[in-house]
Structures are given as C-alpha cells and as structure tokens.
C-alpha cells in the first residue's frame, strides 16, 4: 500500500504529526497576534473580530482583511492537503497532487479564457468554470496514462505535460491580452481579500467534500489495495475511483477559483504527514489537512511581516512554491524509493536495433533545408500569403534570418543535450526540461540580470551554463541514491520547476521594469536576435559538438549499467562528469536563445530513436537535425499564425511538443 511504500513502517521525520501541526500552528498564531497588535490594542480584538465599530478603520481592517485572510489560508491549505492525499490514495502514487496532475493549471486556464470571453462572471460562475477546467485536465491526464495502467511514471509525466501545456497556452494569452496582466498576480495565489465571500464559498464546498469522504471512507480505504484484492471485497473499482477523484478535483478547483494557484502544499503536507508517522488512511487525511492548513497559515503570516517591513507584496502561492521547493529538495533523499528504475543493468530503455542511418539522416537534412526555405520565403504580409522570390528573400533574410538561425541552433543543442542526458541516466524520459536543467539555466541568467545587469553575452553564457550544471548535478546526486528511479528524478524536476515558478512570480510582483524583458525571454522570444547573436550560438554549439564524438564509447556503454561499464574499463565518475558538463553547456546556451520553455530536448531524441537511429552518434546527429527542424518550424509558425502579432518560438515549440508527447503517451505500449 501507499503508506507502506512511503514510510516502510517507520518515521523518517524527527517530529510526530500532531507535534508538527502544533508547532506550525503556534508559530503562525504568534505571528498573527504580532500583526494584529500593531493595528489594535488587545482590549479591542474581540470586538474587531465579531462586531467591528463602523467608525473604527483599524477594527474594520481586522474584520474584513486580516481575519478573512487567516481563514482562507486555513481552508485553502487544508483543502490542498486533503486533495493531495485523495489523489495519492486513489492513484497509488506518492507524487500525485493538484499541481503535478495538471488540475490546477487546467482550472487556471479555464478562468483565463473566461476572463476574456465572459468578463462579468460572478463567484459561483467562476467556480463552475474552474471546475470545468480542472475536470477537463484530469480527464486528459487519465486518458493519456490509461493504457499504461495508470503507472506512477506515466501518470506524472502526463500531468507534467498537461500542466506545462496549459501554462504555455496561458502565457500566450497573457502576452496578447493586457486584461490578463492583473490575473497573473492573482493566479500566483493571493489570499488578500476584503470580504468573507471567498471564505463562505470555500468553507461550504470543503465541508461538503469532507462529509462525502466520511460516507465513502470504506471504498477509499479499499482503493489503496491491489485491484484484485479490492474487487474480491465487492468494490466496483472504476466507479469508486471516478467518484473519489471527482471529490479531489472539486477541492482543487474550489481553491483555484477562490485564491488562485498555490503550489507545494498539495504534495508537501501529505509527504510531511507520512514522514512524521501517519500510516493509516484516516491519519493521513487528518494530519495532511491540518499540516497543510497550518503550513499555509504560517507562510502567509511570514509574507505579511515581510510586506510590512519591506513594502513588497508577494503572492502567497508564489512564496509557497519558492520556500516549498528547497524543503522538498531536503526531504526528497529521505523518502523511500517509490518505484524501481525503468532500466536495470540491461539497458532496456534503448532499442538496440540498427536501421539505415545515412538514409534517414539524408531525409532529415532534406526536410530541414525545405523548412529553412519555407521560413525565409513563405510568409504572411499586408496583402496576404505570399512566396518571395530570390531577390526579395535576400532582403527579407536580414529580418527573418537571425531568429531562424538562432532557433535552429537552440533546437539542435537542446536535442543533443536531451540525448546525452537519456544515455547518461539510462532513462528515456530524461530531458533538460523534465529534469529541471533548463530551469537551472534560466535561474542563472535571472540572477545575473538582477545582480549585475551590465555584463555581456560571454558572462551570460557562463551564468546560464553554471546554473544548468548545478541543477543537473543536484538531479544526478538525488538520482544516484535511488538508482536513477524515474519517479525520483521527475519529482526532483518538479521541485526545481516549482521553485522557479515561485521565483518568477515574486519577481513579477516586484514591479521591476526589467521583468518585462525577462518574461518575453522566458517565453522563448527570438524577435530581437541579430546576426552576431545567431552566429555566436552556432559557433559555440559547433565547438561543443566536437566533444561529443570523443564520448561515443561512453555513451554506448553507460546505459548498460554500472557493473558492465566497470568490467569494460569505463571510468564512471570522469565519464559522467564530462557528459554532464557538455549537456549543461548545450542547455545553457540554448536557454539563452529560446528560454526555458520547450519540449525539444525530450521530443527530438524520442523521434530520432523511433525514426531511424539507435546507436549513439547517428542518434545524436538525427536528434540535432530534428531539434533544429522543430524550432525552425516553430519560429515560422509564431511569425505567421497571429500576424501582425508574433508568438515566441519557444512557446510555439512547447505547444507543438506537448501535443506530440500527449499523442505518443496515449499510444498503446508495444
């Protein structure tokens, strides 16, 4: 069962769940009292909470701002903790929660679309829209992973793809709809309200779900058993799963529609409860809800203190992701391995069949040349679609050439980095995007821009490559402890992405004008790329590519397992470090060009492996060509689809790549 998998019958946390909840509640209560005493003397607290004097602004502030915020923190944190346990119990997956399953992203996207098409929605209508989006996202995730038996790896990968896809679509809406700029900050999780309506709505929905959970407690317990055992006890598995999952989706949608997207609580609270010794389902439901409530209450109080001292308004959800990420990174190595690695010593993740490499590569080169010609010559203008002649194409190449060349170089580098990571870890699902390497590169660039904005491209490349190296080094360190188990690697990537989302939301909330340019870069914009930048990316990528053939033998042997690699005389530490550095440099440079958004590093190696190649060098060459082809087409599509507006190439690649990966994930396994 899930709890036995997670804790193995022992506590791995130095504090029991009730002590942990009491400590968090005590710290949060102390900070709340400290905040209130700056507004009112203690003698007026009772009156301010229950019957505020209309002429006393301080009492009104406490009654209509401080208290609703406190109640929202408790309700939202408790609901997210409860939803996380339900998802984990029904799906038997310790990583399942509203954010990792794409449920929160689906609800938020639905609210964004409603803000454009139906701007006058009331509170109840907003909740219905959020619920519709959450249900749609959950249905897609279940549909994608159904043929894989709802395995933990397939389920979380489907949730990540759906979540990133919804996030990319929402980013596209924000770029072209000014009215959604304010929704961005609210969507980062804001508990700041001026009335009790949100508290009333969230409390009523949470109470209804709790009552239904009490009624369904026996089926919910049986869902933690194996299917055969649960069926032998008379449980209708499919019906019970759908009903209980619907309750978790309702809770998630209610939180998103009331306070926005809040990360970490849904996965952090159940994890803390399990590690503190909550073994039975009842214990996990109770203590996850209480720990989630007190954890969000404490985090929000900390933000109010920071706001009062520094006068910086930070969304609560963003801060939860920012602080929750390091906590998860600390707890991750202490969690018991949740599933076996995809690959053991035999290297089953890579198909050893050889196909005609030269023929396949020539076909891909022809496709790339055709895509380059289409990108340069075919486009949309004031008079409609047109194909440019040779002279006109030469003139247009000054504007269209640099973004196209830069996008192609970035796509090739991300594809090669993805192939290197897959062979390094022995995990076919590894990529710079999924493992958080692109996130690390982006954090390196953001830190440089904020700390020392005057540095040029060489220093930016070093910062980006350094961030990618640190991120990948951390991932390999955690992966080594679990034998590179895919779920552990994915959880680490989710954690890094969560921290990055929190940092980005905090920076956007700061009002710093430099964040506007960073937002465009994060979306993968190549508008401002000129020939020096494009040629520099090609040159550096070409120099790095010279190191790949030297590593050919290592790339052939490492996926076969440590034992066989040692017997063949492969220096494991130095070979892994060398491959790690090359992959990090590729990722860092590519991230500088197209930002951290895209699925190219996962999609191109997969296409190369299924298209024609399985041996290292042919696969790397095919991956590079496919990555360049994808980004050239994405750059062209971003230029013409919304003419005269343009979509960032990285954003288009994310949408295209997400669609491709969803189709591949939904296919019946061979």
From TrEMBL:
Keyword list (alphabetical) reads:
Cell membrane, Membrane, Transmembrane, Transmembrane helix, Transport
Q: Which Pfam families match?
A: FecCD (PF01032)
Q: Highest taxon of the source? A: Bacteria
Q: Which GO terms describe its biological process?
A: siderophore-iron import into cell
* Entry's localization field: Cell membrane
Q: Which GO terms describe its molecular function?
A: transmembrane transporter activity
Q: Where are the transmembrane segments?
A: 20-40, 66-87, 99-121, 127-146, 153-176, 242-273, 285-306, 312-332, 361-383, 403-422, 434-455, 461-478, 490-509, 577-604, 616-637, 649-666
Q: How does it sit in the membrane?
A: Multi-pass membrane protein
InterPro entries from the UniProt entry: ABC_BtuC-like (IPR037294), ABC_transptr_permease_BtuC (IPR000522)
Membrane as UniProt keyword: yes
Q: Which GO terms describe its cellular component?
A: plasma membrane
Listed PANTHER family: FE(3+) DICITRATE TRANSPORT SYSTEM PERMEASE PROTEIN FECD-RELATED, FERRIC ENTEROBACTIN TRANSPORT SYSTEM PERMEASE PROTEIN
The family this protein is said to belong to:
Belongs to the binding-protein-dependent transport system permease family. FecCD subfamily.
Q: What protein is this chain from?
A: Fe(3+)-hydroxamate ABC transporter permease FhuB
The organism encoding this protein is Acidisoma cellulosilyticum
